[in-house]
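Narrative summary of target 7.
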Amino acid sequence: MNTITHFEIAARDPQKAKAFYEHVFGWRISEGERLLEISDQDAGVSGHILPWNYEEPPYVAVYLKVADLQATLDKATEEGARVIVPPTPIPTGIFGLFLDPEGHPVGLIQYQEAD
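Modeled conformation, tokenized:
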């Protein structure tokens, strides 16, 4: 637990970002339904590029695997973090995103347990 499990790159021009990372690092980036998927075989950890159409600047964030997402968000806010994505269901579990006291985005994923 509490290890990096995923990363994301928010890009205003996802296709330009895709071409950049493929050229610079040799990553093979595949087209997903909404995201551009980056294989852990290429990057060392799985990731994706997502379209970013918001006023806030684009970003790169790491996601940490945690046992209790809400408890981790609570601890982070006690230490000065600001939650920007509350616990949100995804097919593999739930995720959330906060800004640390310096303004860096940090993602959390609590994977659902296998039945």
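Strands lie at 3-11, 29-31, 36-38, 47-51, 60-65, 82-90, 93-99, 105-111.
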